[in-house]
Structure to design on (334 residues):
């Protein structure tokens, strides 16, 4: 199972004129802002790690905040992608109850030079329509605490306990229960069907849907690319089980207080310039799955070193480093 999933993905990308666009997005900022779920709130309730364009801010109303024209740089390697992608942040809870933030690190399949962040994919199995200006969506629910509810409402969100950088397979929907020699990879995949009208919805999810088999439902007839995040969390400094809870339970917790992992979720705000994403989809661009090669002549790109230079100053002043007595924002652990 080490490489089976990647090999299957590579094979699938060659049929039905499919695209497999894969690239690195370095860390832009880590702070308590969430312009989708908590627009205008500074700070938001829980901490996020954010990548993409530096126009990310506390309130991103598309009517007044156009990402492609507002951002001046991107931490992603395609320079025409000024989108923002974000997730919650992982913490280690030690036996004595103190907490330490877990850093992200560059995907070792081609992106070791990245300053953390995540790997982003746009996947299709045939013709797909790129997102429209102002489009945004979320997937997952931070309030979920059971496998039953997660599996009922969402698909394709999981954890991989990495034995090495090449590990694939053995995914779980909950936090790994044993030390992971090469860290933990968190995968978040968004739905691939759109209602064709709304670029957002009150819950940021109802305007998109999962397909029924290989076809989109009548309520959401437009096929969109699957946005897919892989985030590598460097749990290696916390593999000493003598520091884990005395009852033998796993020690990791999301920044919103979830110790199960089932509250996994992600946020996306589209910000590609002009028709750049549609051009890439129409060209059936297929990136290298093991190296830093986008293989898409229609797109302009930058190096990992250049992407690392795009960062954003924090707007929320609080201590996020070292050992903490509580999660940022005082989020309860449950």
């Amino acid at each position: 199972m080490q490489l089976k999933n990647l090999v299957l993905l590579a094979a699938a990308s060659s049929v039905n004129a499919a695209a497999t666009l894969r690239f690195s997005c370095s860390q832009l900022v880590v702070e308590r802002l969430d312009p989708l779920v908590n627009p205008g709130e500074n700070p938001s309730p829980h901490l996020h790690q954010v990548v993409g364009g530096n126009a990310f801010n506390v309130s991103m109303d598309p009517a007044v905040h156009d990402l492609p024209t507002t951002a001046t740089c991107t931490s992603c390697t395609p320079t025409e992608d000024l989108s923002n992608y974000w997730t919650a942040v992982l913490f280690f809870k030690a036996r004595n109850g103190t907490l330490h933030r877990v850093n992200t690190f560059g995907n070792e399949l081609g992106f070791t030079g990245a300053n953390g962040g995540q790997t982003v994919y746009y996947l299709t199995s045939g013709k797909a329509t790129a997102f429209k200006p102002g489009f945004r969506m979320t997937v997952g629910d931070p309030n979920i605490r059971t496998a039953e509810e997660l599996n009922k409402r969402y698909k394709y969100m999981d954890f991989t306990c990495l034995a090495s950088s090449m590990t694939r397979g053995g995914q779980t929907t909950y936090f790994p229960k044993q030390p992971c020699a090469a860290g933990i990879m968190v995968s978040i995949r968004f739905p691939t069907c759109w209602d064709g009208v709304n670029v957002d919805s009150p819950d940021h999810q109802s305007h998109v849907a999962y397909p029924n088999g290989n076809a989109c439902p009548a309520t959401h007839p437009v096929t969109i690319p699957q946005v897919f995040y892989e985030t590598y969390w460097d749990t290696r400094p916390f593999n000493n089980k003598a520091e884990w809870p005395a009852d033998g339970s796993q020690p990791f917790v999301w920044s919103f207080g979830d110790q199960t992992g089932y509250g996994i979720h992600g946020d996306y705000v589209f910000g590609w310039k002009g028709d750049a994403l549609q051009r890439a989809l129409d060209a059936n661009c297929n990136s290298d799955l093991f190296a830093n090669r986008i293989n898409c002549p229609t797109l302009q790109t930058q190096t990992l070193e250049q992407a690392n230079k795009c960062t954003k100053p924090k707007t929320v002043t609080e201590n996020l480093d070292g050992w903490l007595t509580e999660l940022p924002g005082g989020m309860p652990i449950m």
Remarks:
- The chain has a mean pLDDT of 94.
- The first helix runs from residue 4 to 12.
- Residues 77 and 302 are 5 Å apart (CA to CA).
- The chain is about 10% helix and 20% strand.
